[in-house]
Amino acid sequence: MQMIIKQSKMSTRAIKFLTRQTTAFEVIKYDHDRKGAVYAAQTVGFPLECTIKTLVVTLGNKQHVLALMPGDRELDLKRMARACKAKRTEMALPATAERLTGYKMGGISPFGLTTPLPSVMDSRLLSYDRVIINGGQRGIMLKMSPKEITRLLKSEIADIARL
Fold this sequence. Notes:
Layout: H1 13-20, E1 26-29, H2 37-44, E2 52-60, E3 63-70, H3 77-84, E4 90-91, H4 94-101, E5 119-122, E6 131-134, E7 140-144, H5 146-153, E8 156-158
Parallel strand pairs: 3-5, 5-8
Antiparallel strand pairs: 1-7, 2-3, 2-4, 6-7
């Protein structure tokens, strides 16, 4: 897969980050009418289980981490706590997620964050050759290898989804 940017005006911090890394990815633009992995996957015609949701999770003591989840699954906060060696975890408030990432809800990408955060990727995602993940703006998805995402983010791999 080679880097493909369909419109030259389309440049987010996430796209700039990936371009600097000389990583293979494809930009997929769609009309963003509502937030959510289900809508994004349906609109671009990609399987929901291969669509990554980027969630900001609070570990306590002002520590935060990203959870990279399959679109068809929900985060299990107890599993996430175990993966992060924390007593407990909870979802960050939307305002906190936006402040830490520099992206608006519905457009949060794990790439090019204003505050670097560690990440944990659900292990199921590594079974796919290609996934789509938010590109840092509502209506922009990036198609790329989940192994490459893991490498770039130095993500931990764990079973963090509810069964």
